[in-house]
Amino acid sequence: MALPERNLYRYMPIVADTNTTSSPTASAGKYLTFRLKNESYGIVVLKIREIIRLQPITPVPQMPSYIKGVLNLRGKIIPVIDLRVKFGLQDITDADHNCIIVVKIDLPNRVSSQIGLIVDAVEEVINISANEIEAAPDFGAVLDTSFILGLAKIKGSVKALLDIDRILTEETLSALAPAI
Amino acid sequence: MSDNSRESLAALAQFNSQLAMELVFAEPGKDQGLLPVNYLLSQMADLCAASPPPKEIAFSVSKAQEWVEIIFLGNGLFDADTIKRLGEWTHWMERAFEVLAQGQPVPAIPDGWKAADDADADALAASTVAPVAGVANTETEMPLIVEVDDVEMLREFISESYEHLHNIEMGVLVLEDKPEDHDTLNSIFRAFHTFKGGSGLLNLTPVNRLAHELESLLDLARHKKIGISSQVIDVILEGGDVLKRFTVEIEHQVSDQRGYSPIVIPTSELISRVQRIVQQGVPPSSAPVSAPSTPAPQIQSTPNHPAPATSAASVAAATAPIAPITDTEHKPENKESAKENSAARASDAPAASSALVKVATQKLDNLVDLTGEMVIAQSQVVHDPAFTGLADVRLLRNLTQLSRIANELQKTVLSLRMVPIRPTFQKMTRLVRDLATRQGKLIELKLHGEDTELDRTLVEQLNDPLVHMIRNAVDHGIEKDVARLSQGKPPVGTIELRAWHQGGSIILEVKDDGAGLNRERIRAKAIKEGLIKQEDILTDDEVFHLIFEPGFSTAEVVTDVSGRGVGMDVVRRNIEQLRGKIEILSTEGKGSTFRIYLPLTLAIIDGMLISIGTQRYILPALLVRESFRPTADMISTVQGRGEMVNVRGRLTPLLRLYDYFGLTPESTDPTRSVVVVVGYEHQQRCLLVDQLLGKQEVVIKALGETFKQRKDFAGAAILGDGQVGLIIEVDGLVNLKGDSSRRAS
């Protein structure tokens, strides 16, 4: 907990760190970590545009439950995903601690767009070195780990590093069609 | 001729006219239209194989296929040369089918094709400079070799050239109506002169030579040594086209940066024609200016134009105004001043463009977004409870001032995307001229309101539907002069193209004084096609809208000209994509008027704000027919589920939006809610909503990749309080298949 989250708002948007790359496997570099319930996750800072407070979201009907809707980000409309629902964690609506991480994702068709991720709380930006990263174990059919790049063990806790581009993969996108 | 081959000829003619349509959109350096052209050609080849037409036709089809093949072997992009040649090809084919239908032999195949084809093949293979001899031309075509160290200078020449060429084209079209206009003549002369100078400086010899010849021609005209006949206009236009092809090719090579290769575009035939006119002189009134020249002058590659009339009319006669062919044709004062204006504007154009700044549309869109946000933030500040209690006059005054500036700023920013419709209209002038000449009709196109501004993207997307509609008016609307005279109409048909603003929309009108739509025949055809039933009673408007149904060829219905009809359904689809609608007024024998209503800009729509439960949605106001609170007896059901509302005698399906969206409404009882009727003439639907919150202009934003599969939302807008409201795509809702209750989550 290097930085209290309030301050983080002011530090965003984070300037891109050239040390990190966006290769499919997790590599050493700077990660923004955040909390979902009692689990901790990380996203490469390069992907992060800004962090905003939770604000009114307009729901879009007939979408999977983890797609909360759209919100107005300074005149741009961006979709918002609730990561807790997406990962099957309980949906706690403790508004005080909720915030939205805005990330830039590159979709498989090479279009890049921004999406908002609802998380419980943003923790800090940390440097993760290569020897702290382990490949994600295969849980078989129990758990889909395709969007987990690796696991980092920092100070006794485990942080799952996310491949945020794959949160909305082609399959998920087509599943968003109204015929659900 | 057997029935079989007649049928196959008719099919070939149909493909040919489709091909001509595709060619209208082909542009050098682009592949637009290439695949359809290729497809049509292969269809024609198949037909030729199945039931052999006269050997000339079969030969020319295979020839055209070869040309397209060469493009595919090359970079896969059209070049100006091939487009031109395919254009000539379709003309020739059209002519051939016409004479075949009359049982006459096919005209000879233009020799030029063979030659041009060789030239092309050579040019493709050529890594070495090899001037190619045209078989048809006695002279060797000189290849244009770009050898310039100063690329900047060349670029400047290219961009200037486009301007000059545009001025030439516009000027010539003015001249056609007003041959004695000295200013226009001068401006065209100057354009060619500058062209000549520039090309001389850059050693672009063939360009230089052609420009020189045309310049001398215009010089003579300027000094009233020759009159502006349709022949002269044809060579000037053709010259302009050839120069443009050169310019396009040069530009290509400059931007390509792969070094320069020789450009071979035949000019000697044109030059000799120009020289002949210069030598023999055309007496000032040898041919009526607005009359079309020979039906298909371009197809013969060996120049056999009728020699200019023998008369050696005195030079002095040139000063006399040219008599109009018919008295009924002109309303002098009006037209004079209109032409005066357009001529003046044409010469103003270059000066005006220098004061312009090119800005990436992305930046403009960002500006629009940010301004929208600023207006919202501003309104939030102004309406902040902390201020409302204050009675500080100065603060309130300043706040009002702030709102005014913010709104003014938003208006200005939105107007940045607006451009006048003039260039699109002017393209139509050329189109009408070419089509009329080809079909041997006398047509005058009148333009009104070219300065009307509309959204840039809208202008781009309007081009195609306008081309379709103008083509339609020329093909099926305006009759030939003989037919017109027998009906007591002036021989020259008029097409009026008009644009004006009305309320929040822009209206475009294409009006012709031709044959008009034949109500009974449209009806009969629609019954035959199963679109309507014999007993259906339709209003005029509903009947006319049938021509927009897919596969409903106006050609077979409205006139007997075969196979030229371009599906009007394309026009309607295009217009609807632009969130517009189309209206037809027509009187048989008097003419038709097509009126297109479009939103001023694609960025803003007039929205009807509705609420369902806690959510707000926006319906495009253009598609909202009416709204009311129904009484219980207005609603009936089919099989207990399919609900319908009796809207003034018309049973319209009811869609409970809360059901569809999976929301909790204020009330599920229709008599306590509001019914909104949305849709088009034939497809209407009633939507059940909680409340109507009012009309509001909203800026449309895309929903983005994530929701691109959603056909039921057109986008989203940011509402007055900064929240997002989804815009319902009425088209998507109206066409929803299946039972809505099944979709409820």
Task: Describe the 3D structure.
The complex is a heterodimer of chains A (about 180) and B (about 750). In chain A, about 10% of the residues lie in helices and about 40% in strands. Chain A has about 180 residues and is mainly beta. Chain A has one domain (about 5-170): CheA-289, Domain 4 (OB fold (Dihydrolipoamide Acetyltransferase, E2P)), CATH 2.40.50. In chain A, the strands form two sheets. A six-stranded mixed β-sheet of chain A has the order 8-1-2-11-10-9, with no helix packed on it. Chain A has a five-stranded mixed β-sheet with strand order 3-6-7-5-4. Chain B has five domains: about 1-110, Up-down Bundle (Four Helix Bundle (Hemerythrin (Met), subunit A)), CATH 1.20.120; about 150-285 and about 340-345, Four Helix Bundle (Hemerythrin (Met), subunit A); about 360-415; about 425-600, Histidine kinase-like ATPase, C-terminal domain (Heat Shock Protein 90); about 605-745, SH3 Domains (SH3 type barrels), CATH 2.30.30.40. Chain B is globular and about 85 Å long. Chain B has about 750 residues and is α+β, with helices and mostly antiparallel strands. In chain B, the strands form four sheets. In chain B, strands 10-14-15-13-12-11 form a six-stranded mixed β-sheet. Residues about 115-140, about 285-355, about 555-565 and about 735-745 of chain B have low confidence and may be disordered. The chains are: A mainly beta (about 180), B alpha+beta (about 750). The interface of A and B includes residues 56, 69, 79 and 115 of A.
